[in-house]
Design a protein that fits this description.
Elements (H helix, E strand, L loop, with lengths): L1 E4 L7 H7 L1 E4 L9 E10 L2 H7 L16 E9 L10 E5 L11 E5 L3 E3 L6 H5 L4 H12 L6 E4 L5 H12 L3 E6 L2 H9 L5 E3 L5 H12 L1 E6 L4 H9 L5 E4 L13 H6 L3 E4 L2 H6 L3 H16 L7 E6 L3 H10 L5 E5 L4
Parallel strand pairs: 8-9, 8-11, 9-10, 11-12, 12-13, 14-15
Antiparallel strand pairs: 1-2, 3-4, 3-6, 3-15, 4-5, 5-7
């Protein structure tokens, strides 16, 4: 089989990308609670970029195979897991010895999502992280009870799913974007509240709008100084929820007085930790509900291109050139 392999971590993202190699090795053998999945496709995510730089929370022994999610078909199973044989699955894998950017990989049973027969496999490649993150963010915050929420990096996929969930519950969304192109796209899609973070008076406009709409929850994918801007803009009894760190900078500029006297709070959302709080029956029901949103066309991950493993350098450069422009998929190369 072929796999994309990272020989060394490198904080310089270009050097990290250029260091990636495609190597041929023997297929792994599933043991214990594992199955062997033949990959259909795996996306490139911000977490993958952070991982190859050595800046992600998960650090693997080197050399390592990157990639945390994907879709495929179960081809071999360990003893006792025969019910999974032949099934189409989506998966989320963090194990030291496995990575999604590989023809074959072993995945623990608890990290598998069984796919509905009508679920598209390309869409399923992007199922395990972003859709569940959006659902989980709404779940832990009780956002459906809010009048309005704020999302930054609003041209991305998680904010798109959040907007859909908000619409279901008649919750207004204040969208914050970095580029004029993202602003124009959201505007053409009918979004009523969009702010360009580079515009003059951005912080003041956000504060006015957040108070007018009573936006008491902000979902922050960026961190850095923008966390402070969001936090300070919200009315009393609000919560800033961090679920990403696209700025690669620490949270800053939070108002001390708001923390002390206005009952505001800051929290973090970890998808894996949220999943651990849910029993198998509930998770299966959530999974079926989310998949039906894709099957019926209500939700869709925008996928702009796919590349073979042999084109991994080109794929990652393409992704970094326009991270809001749609997902880039990696698919197995022909040996």
């Amino acid at each position: 089989m072929k796999s994309v392999v990272l020989p060394n971590y490198n904080r310089n993202v270009l050097r990290a990308i250029l260091s990636l190699e495609v190597r041929v090795s023997e297929k792994p053998v599933p043991v214990g609670d594992e199955v062997l999945v033949r990959l259909h496709a795996a996306p490139v995510n911000p977490s993958d970029i952070a991982f190859i730089q050595g800046g992600y929370q998960i650090v693997k022994s080197l050399p390592a195979v990157p990639g945390f999610e994907g879709s495929g078909k179960v081809e071999e199973v360990a003893s006792g897991l025969e019910d999974w044989l032949g099934k189409r699955v989506s998966f989320f894998v963090q194990d030291d010895k496995s990575g999604a950017w590989s023809d074959y990989l072993v995945v623990k049973e608890c990290d598998l999502i069984e796919l509905h027969e009508d679920m598209d496999m390309d869409q399923a490649a992007c199922l395990a992280i972003n859709p569940f993150t959006a659902y989980g963010l709404f779940d832990v915050t009780g956002a459906e009870l809010s009048r309005a929420v704020i999302v930054n990096a609003a041209g991305g996929q998680v904010p798109a799913f959040i907007r859909s969930l908000a619409q279901e519950h008649d919750v207004k969304v204040i969208n914050i974007v970095r580029s004029q192109a993202a602003f124009n796209k959201l505007k053409s899609n009918g979004e009523a509240y969009i702010l360009l973070e580079s515009e003059e008076g951005f912080a003041a406009k956000l504060k006015e709008l957040a108070h007018d709409l009573e936006a008491t929850i902000a979902f922050d994918a960026v961190a850095g100084a923008q966390s402070g801007v969001l936090f300070n803009a919200m009315p009393p009894d609000s919560e800033l929820v961090l679920y990403g760190g696209l700025s690669n900078k620490p949270v800053s500029e939070l108002s001390t007085m708001d923390l002390i006297f206005n009952d505001k709070m800051v929290s973090g959302f970890n998808l894996s930790a949220w999943k651990e709080l849910i029993d198998n029956k509930e998770f299966k029901a959530i999974s079926e509900s989310i998949q039906m949103k894709f099957i019926t066309g209500k939700w869709e991950t925008h996928i702009r291109s796919d590349f073979s493993f042999d084109q991994v350098t080109e794929a990652l450069k393409s992704y970094l050139g326009d991270m809001s422009g749609g997902k880039v998929l990696l698919k197995p190369s022909k040996i």
